[in-house]
Design goal:
FAD/NAD(P)-binding domain, alpha/beta, binds flavin-adenine dinucleotide, 5-stranded parallel beta sheet, binds nicotinamide-adenine-dinucleotide
């Protein structure tokens, strides 16, 4: 009898969690498991802000997928998924196609651009390892070029960060630590460097209480960041950005780098494939399947589940993607074992920590507010735990963060 074919798209937090759990739950004679991912490596998306700022080497944030999957149970296919044909039960890849009986879509997110002019051409978004490398190298290039021009352009050393959400704030935490090193390396006077953060909302990180946000903002301001709240980016140009504070005239900030960290939407393949979505995210049933599609699961940043407590979607986070991966694996195993009592996803909120550079952070963990070195310690524990969940102790020893204080 033909074995059912389970195809998992994406080896990020959600996809890799699904596969590493599934390979323990079903036997190799029960189903064929195929994992499709763009690269032969997995990257810790949650560390990319540090690789972008240059405070963490890009190789530290990635590891070989084959090292954490069981090759006798899971076939790894390195390919880019281009379209999902739900009714034909197949996925079109850049190097062929793959058929499925069960599909898990775990392709992560794309930057939300809101159609802003010049963004795709001149701004940088922290999206993957190569994007992070490009940001680091671009900033270094600006420093390296500064002294080698006949006419010095101080604006070259201005970095504008658009979005004071988690990604923007975490990047600011790293870049403000990196700037003194860059100044020393390239003989640049620190006072020539300007770091500006622009956010449309009245307050950064609205998920946290005011005292924690004030702590974060004061720390970053003390390291030279200028915050412009209630201000939107309207256009990005080759060497400047046009911003507008509510009720005021637009203002142009000359700069050498624009980092776009103003939110995400589900992977564009969802829309391209004609799957019903809200900002690229598919509203799934609690068992994580698409309504009326008994064989298709969507997890992680591509999925949307409403948090009944506030009647708003859960945010796209690694914590949720990993928990969904565990439930998805158990539900797939049930389907393979012909059981129909699928498990609902129930979010177990362990808390949130936002880093402010390697040694500082703010957060709420198990309902308790934390900041400073204790929060930074917790952040590293969370990072190491994510490694442990996928690759056990050996992966933690290879890739983990051990400078705990
Ligand atoms: P991802 O982990 O992004 O994985 C998607 C995978 O799919 C990748 O391997 C990608 O290469 C692959 N892929 C994409 N397109 C294709 C394609 N067409 N074909 C084949 N493969 C493809 N969340 C937290 O909970 N805590 C944090 O501290 C945190 N920090 C963050 C810091 C930063 C800088 C950023 C950007 C995000 C952070 N997040 C954090 C959010 C978190 O990273 C995401 O919610 C999480 O990565 C989503 O997991 P996922 O499995 O859906 O997608
Ligand atoms: P976000 O949605 O959290 O923040 C985006 C920010 O951009 C908002 O503050 C918004 O007001 C601002 N913005 C939107 N349009 C703008 C414009 N035109 N001009 C200026 N500002 C604008 O998005 P994010 O920071 O990219 O995070 C994405 C997801 O990843 C979130 O769910 C977040 O929780 C998660 N994440 C978590 C962590 C963590 O837990 N430590 C770290 C990074 C990201």
């Amino acid at each position: 009898m033909r074995k059912p074919k389970i195809v998992v798209l994406g080896a990020g937090y959600g996809g890799l969690m699904t596969v590493t759990r599934l390979q323990k739950l079903i036997g190799s004679n029960e189903a064929e498991i195929i994992l499709v991912n763009k690269n032969e490596y997995h990257y810790e998306t949650t560390w990319l802000h540090a690789a972008s700022a240059g405070t963490l080497h890009h190789d530290r944030v990635r590891y070989d997928i084959k090292k954490v999957i069981n090759g006798s149970k899971v076939q790894f296919v390195q390919a880019t998924a281009e379209a999902i044909r739900m009714d034909e039960k197949k996925v079109i890849l850049d190097n062929g196609e793959v058929e499925f009986d069960y599909l898990v879509i775990a392709l992560g997110s794309d930057s939300e651009t809101f159609g802003i002019k010049g963004l795709d051409k001149y701004a940088y978004a922290i999206t993957n390892v190569n994007a992070a490398r490009q940001i680091r190298e671009h900033i270094e290039y600006q420093f390296a070029t500064y002294h080698n021009e006949d006419e010095k352009k101080d604006d070259r050393l201005t970095i504008v960060v658009a979005g004071a959400g988690f990604t923007g704030i975490e990047f600011l935490g790293e870049i403000t630590n990196r700037i003194p090193e860059l100044c020393k390396e390239y003989d640049v006077d620190r006072s020539k460097v300007r770091i500006v953060c622009v956010d449309a909302a009245p307050m950064a990180l609205p998920q946290f209480d005011r005292d924690l946000v004030d702590y974060a903002i004061s720390l970053l301001e003390s390291k030279g960041v200028e915050f412009h709240s209630g201000t939107t980016v309207q256009e990005v140009r080759e060497d400047s950005v046009l911003i507008c504070k509510k009720g005021e005239e637009p203002q142009e900030i000359k700069c050498g780098t624009v980092i776009w960290s103003a939110g995400v939407r589900g992977n564009c393949i969802i829309e391209k494939s004609g799957i019903e979505n809200m900002r690229g995210r598919v509203k799934v049933n609690l068992d994580l399947r698409i309504p009326d599609k008994d064989n298709i699961f969507v997890i992680g940043d591509c999925s949307l589940i409403i948090n009944e407590d506030c009647n708003r979607p859960y945010p796209p986070t690694a914590q949720i993607a990993m928990q969904q991966g565990e439930v998805c694996a158990r539900n797939l195993a049930k389907l393979i074992h012909h059981q129909d009592n699928l498990e609902p996803f129930v979010f177990d909120d362990k808390g949130t920590v936002c880093s402010l550079g390697e040694d500082d952070a703010i957060g709420v963990v198990f309902g308790k507010k934390i900041k400073g070195s204790s929060a930074s310690f917790m952040k590293k524990v969370v990072d190491n735990r994510a490694l442990f969940m996928v690759g056990g102790t050996s992966l933690v020893l290879k890739k983990g963060k051990f400078k705990l204080f």
